[in-house]
Amino acid sequence: MSSPNALLCWTVTAYRKDGMTEEAYHKYLSEVHGPLVRGLLAKHGFQSYSLVHTNTTTRAKMDQIFDPQFANVADYDCIIQATFRSVDDFVSRLIQNTFVSLLLITRTLPIPSVPGELDE
């Protein structure tokens, strides 16, 4: 039985676009995607939001902390987690009210395909 105060956690994993540098992806996540999504989630009552950009250097350091039990380290470029109170809240507050707007917004955002393109 779940507690009435229990939170649900939504986890998204992603890879950067082919040909995009880690630096350009980090800049896109931290300056464009993160602020946009963080605001939408806060507006619709999400309890927390975290975005982690894992680059080649940080993934290589995982060798230092895992043993055979944890040998399957994912190579995702980004891991996003958000917590919310109920599936109904997620569907009615975020998806139905925002999803179409978010799609329209993100289709117009510059997603760089070459290093430095976001700077232009």
TrEMBL record:
Pfam families: EthD. GO terms for molecular function: oxidoreductase activity. Coiled coil: none annotated. Belongs to the tpcK family. SUPFAM superfamilies: Dimeric alpha+beta barrel (SSF54909). Residues 17-91 form the EthD domain. This is EthD domain-containing protein. It comes from the Eukaryota. InterPro entries: Dimeric_a/b-barrel, EthD_dom.
